[in-house]
Amino acid sequence: MNSDRFLHTIDGISTIAGKAAAWLVMGLMVLVCAEVFKRYILNMPTAWIFDASNMLYGAAFMLGGAYTLAQNAHVRGDFLYSSMRPRTQAGLDLVLYIVFFLPGIAALAYAGWDYAALSWRINEHSNVTADGPPVYHFKAMIPLAGILLLLQGSAEIARCVICLKTGVWPSRLKDVSEIDVVEEQLALSEHVDDETRRNAIEHAQGIEESARQRGMGGDLLK
Fold first, then answer.
1. Bridge partners for 125 per DSSP
2. pLDDT of residue 217
3. Are residues 85 and 222 in contact, defined by beta-carbon separation less than 8 angstroms?
4. Read out DSSP for 19-38?
5. pTM greater than 0.85 (yes/no)
6. Phi and psi angles of residue 6, each rounded to the nearest 5 degrees, phi first
7. How many helices (H) and strands (E) does the chain have?
8. For residue 69, what pLDDT is reported?
9. 125 three-class SS
10. Angstrom distance (rounded) from CA 49 to CA 36
11. Distances (CA, A) of 206 to 13, 64, 108, 179
């Protein structure tokens, strides 16, 4: 297995987990809408929906971490980072991954495993509200999120090492981006001529590429 295939395989695992977790947002939306209707229209609030909403949001947040890392979409203060050469960026990232990321996420996975195991053993329920819903399945997301982040982190470390050797950042597994939505909307529009459509897409692509260069290590900075 070559390096790109190895990296893209891990990216794919993180992407599957992230997209699966995204469906939890649909459940969260349904619960919130139902609670608003019951509370303000029927005057019949439901206590357990508060706990369930927190659990769905928390699970989506944690399980989406590896996917966000795979897309290099975590927020960073990059006003200095974006001006560095790829090898300098890779060296800085490698140090930060080893010193901060790996110990922190390993501790999350290790402590989260004991935390979740205890919750399953005692059949833990929420004590925030009376007769709260079970929370052990939610706490199981903590070690799972840690494992996914460690897996994706290994790919990011490999990217740093490859970049240090070659001076170029390895490619990432491409996923749907905002520019795809722009292109689809313009393609379906009956009120935009071909030249305007082409110029708008090129402009949007330029904006996306600039953002990608700032966040992904500036492939154009040689």
1. 134
2. 47
3. yes
4. HHHHHHHHHHHHHHHHHHHH
5. no
6. -60, -50
7. 8, 0
8. 94
9. strand
10. 10
11. 29, 27, 38, 10
